[in-house]
Fold this sequence. Notes:
The chain has a single domain, classed as Maf protein. 36% of the residues lie in helices and 25% in strands. The protein contains 6 helices and 7 strands. The longest helix has 15 residues. The structure holds inosine 5'-triphosphate (ITT). The site of inosine 5'-triphosphate (ITT) has 21 residues, from strand 3 and helix 3.
Amino acid sequence: MIYFVTSNKGKFVEAAAIFGDLVQKDIGYTEIQADTLEEVASFGMNEVAARLKGPVMLEDAGLFVEALQGFPGVYSAYVQKTIGNAGILRLMQGVENRRAYFKSVIAYVDADGEPVMFSGVVHGQIGFEARGSKGFGYDPIFYVGDLSLGEMEITEKNRISHRAKSMTALKGWLASR
Ligand code: ITT
């Protein structure tokens, strides 16, 4: 059993499909203002490890849009809450370069170990419209091929996603110990 500290049900459901024996803990942690997801995850893990005993992980993820110099990046949660997908589509009006990627950084620690981090990336395109309601967050505007992530079942998204890559890397590391 592993605790996954997150407030985001969508993230939890995708991770649980990879890990099986996962327990969501919505206990919150300080998300510092920093330039990288790694710094945010690492700081958060130090705080969480002091409060929660047992194997525990957390994840910081973000959407990086090439034409916006990587925005919203580490500010993805705030931007999703404020201007949302419609706001990103507005910022991208008239912009030809639609390239973007999602990145997931997870931090994990168990009782006797040092924290470890794994990351995963999926490259795609910001679409011209929001499509699909299967995912969460930016999924409806992020396209891989002809489909937005919002149009994909969890099994399909988990074949390609940033989260599936970081979580699978952790799973492999745990299995190899
Ligand atoms: P926790 O920090 O409690 O885990 P959160 O939703 O704040 O939940 P993040 O800071 O990691 O999670 O996520 C940053 C934003 O990016 C947030 O608005 C998410 O909804 C969005 N996001 C993360 N992963 C995503 C994905 O796979 N598809 C679409 N949007 C995603």
